[in-house]
Design brief:
This protein is α/β, with parallel strands linked by helices. It is about 35% helix and about 25% strand. It is built from ten helices and 13 strands. It has a six-stranded mixed β-sheet, sandwiched between helices. Strands 11-12-10-13 form a four-stranded antiparallel β-sheet, sandwiched between helices. A three-stranded antiparallel β-sheet has the order 2-1-4, with helices on one face. The two termini are about 40 Å apart.
């Protein structure tokens, strides 16, 4: 029996004719991992397969050497903080966390002790006895986190834990996650924003369109993304002339000109060199009126990575 923390062998999950994840092979030792991908890329499906909430259409999934679907006892070794909002609005955070602990087999007194301990740990000292419906988004996230760690699991799994949380709240959650990893425990965090995870995770998994495209350390991911052609859109008074100049200087791989709109879109693996040409172009009467590049969501980078994977770039 495989004793890896998480093990996928040729795993595919279908929703009718729609592919959730496609032919994934994965083997993870204990550690801290960031699962990165655009919204709709298959991150939540992957997490639900790990936690036994979904069963693979084909292939094999193992968690600590056991099937999370067939051998439910292994689920006691994980804590799961889902992306969905809390629906138990009429109960207090303390009652909700302690009730879930009782469902796991703890007696009422021990469940109450562990619930208080977990709520203290996540910084929810105030309001734990108020109804969850009156919580801010940050308080709800902390409450969800408390239920995930209250039973002291070996692996903590988080699905978009920073969504809707203000910067102060994000910093506080990051500190909790860093302390968790510092204690030698394992962590798997799904997000669509790389910089949220860089200070927490040692390694990263990149997923898009249900396919696992790459994995590695933060340095390896940065190196990979740096080699992906950047997609940049310009608005210019002379888009056609600008395109000719960039092609002559061999600074772009592809270029698309919309002369009527005064726009051109390019892909380049030399963005710094391209930007240095802007003052030179200006001296020639070619003005750059607007410039747009990929955002922090990694959508543009993943689109390029997927295009490379398909042999389109």
């Amino acid at each position: 029996m495989d004793t890896k923390m998480i093990f996928f062998e040729e795993v595919t999950r279908l929703y009718g004719s729609v592919i959730g994840v496609n032919d994934i092979n994965l083997s993870l030792e204990p550690g801290s991992y960031g699962l990165l991908g655009p919204n709709g890329s298959g991150k939540t499906t992957l997490l639900n397969l790990i936690t036994g909430q979904l069963q693979a259409t084909q292939g094999r999934v193992q968690l600590f050497g056991a099937s999370p679907v067939l051998e439910k006892e292994v689920l006691h070794r994980i804590g799961f903080c889902p992306a969905v909002d809390l629906l138990q609005t009429n109960v207090s955070g303390f009652d909700w966390v302690s009730y879930l602990l009782e469902l796991q087999g703890f007696d009422r007194q021990e469940a109450a002790r562990l619930a208080d301990q977990a709520l203290d740990l996540v910084g929810l000292e105030e309001g734990r006895h108020r109804a969850i419906g009156g919580y801010s988004r940050g308080m709800k996230q902390r409450c969800k986190l408390a239920q995930a760690i209250a039973h002291d699991p070996d692996l903590l799994i988080l699905d978009e834990p920073f969504t809707g949380v203000d910067p102060v709240g994000r910093h506080g959650l990051s500190e909790i996650f860093r302390e968790w990893v510092g204690q030698g425990k394992s962590l798997l965090v799904a997000s669509h924003v790389l910089h949220e995870l860089e200070a927490i995770c040692e390694s990263f998994l990149l997923i898009c369109d249900g396919r696992l495209l790459a994995s590695g350390s933060a340095y390896e991911v940065h190196s990979l993304l740096a080699n992906i052609p950047n997609r940049i859109r310009f608005k210019s008074n002379q888009p056609k002339e600008m395109a000719v100049q960039l092609l002559e200087k061999r600074l772009v791989q592809t270029i698309d000109v919309d002369e009527a709109a005064g726009q051109l879109t390019v892909t380049t693996s030399q963005p710094a060199d391209l930007y240095e040409q802007i003052p030179i172009l200006s001296e020639q009467g070619i003005e750059i009126l607007e410039m747009h590049s990929g955002d922090d969501s990694l959508q543009a980078a993943f689109d390029s990575l997927l295009s490379i994977h398909r042999g389109e770039i």
